[in-house]
Design a protein that fits this description.
single chain; alpha/beta; 7-stranded parallel sheet; 9 strands; globular
């Protein structure tokens, strides 16, 4: 069923309902890494705000569910499942999004892996996977979405980074380096693309109650409840972010209120990067 109302309420069950004002009405978006967690949350939030959204991820079952949820919100969608560092696959997906939905003017690059361990223990495979899934895939999607954004004379690109790319963190050194590269890449692109009316920013969350963190907790083993309590205790607000907390940053940067914001990294980390200790 199509959504015709100009004012929709979105509510996750936590806290007060958030009004949706259709700030992205008429926009076409592409969101990568949209199979679950933050990526899915961004895609659904964009849809609630009026955008039609093309989504992709590595595995079909998850991203297909995201697409079904977008359709349930009354928006158009298309989905793909492929390795986002494969240029031919990226070219085909962007072309399909253009054919099915229209020229994309919003891009969120969210695909990632998160290698963890001592610098002497991180394997070459883990290094390559992180580089390809995060930095290379972002560059490929940017490369093939730019011509469409230039064509419409408008665009917003937002890249998922991490507070670790700003501050560094033991046993996340390589992951931090890739995220620092994302931040630098976004800033350089912002200056390059500004004459075409295309804004480029990054968002750096801290710990988020999302599947990536859950997988990390499983990887570490031990008492998951104690580990979560320890992570929460290190947050200035006493808890890590929800998916909704982070998604709101992406909606803001894609919307009209952020028209003069480009070449910025928005730290959506609850203040943990300034807490010290």
């Amino acid at each position: 069923m199509w959504q015709h109302s100009a004012f929709v309420t979105s509510w996750s069950g936590r806290g007060p309902a958030r009004p949706c004002l259709m700030k992205l009405k008429g926009r076409i978006a592409i969101v990568t890494g949209a199979g679950d967690g933050i990526g899915r949350g961004i895609a659904l939030a964009f849809a609630r705000e009026g955008a039609d959204v093309a989504v992709c991820a590595l595995r079909r079952p998850n991203v297909e569910q995201t697409a079904l949820k977008i359709e349930a919100l009354g928006r158009r969608t298309t989905f793909g499942h492929f390795d986002a560092s494969d240029e031919e696959a990226v070219i085909n997906f962007v072309a399909e999004a253009r054919k099915s939905l229209g020229p994309p003017s919003l891009l969120v690059t969210n695909a990632s892996t998160m290698p963890y361990g001592e610098a002497t223990d991180i394997s070459v495979t883990e290094m390559d996977d992180c580089y390809r899934s995060k930095l290379k895939s972002s560059a490929l999607f940017v490369k093939h979405c730019i011509p469409h954004m230039r064509g419409v004379g408008d665009g917003s690109i937002t890249m998922m980074a991490s507070v670790i790319g700003n501050t560094g963190f033991a046993r996340f050194a390589y992951y931090g380096a890739i995220n620092a590269a994302i931040i630098g890449y976004a800033r350089g692109l912002a200056i390059e693309l500004a004459p075409y009316g295309i804004r480029v920013n990054s968002v750096s969350p801290g710990a988020v109650d999302a599947p990536m963190l859950h997988r990390f907790e499983t990887q570490l083993g031990g008492d998951a409840a104690k580990l979560r309590a320890a992570i929460d205790a290190n947050q200035p607000r006493g808890r890590i972010a929800t998916v909704e907390d982070v998604v709101a940053s992406f909606v803001f940067l894609a919307g009209p209120e952020a028209a003069n914001i480009t070449a910025c990294d928005l730290r959506c980390d609850g203040g943990v990067s300034f807490k010290g200790g």
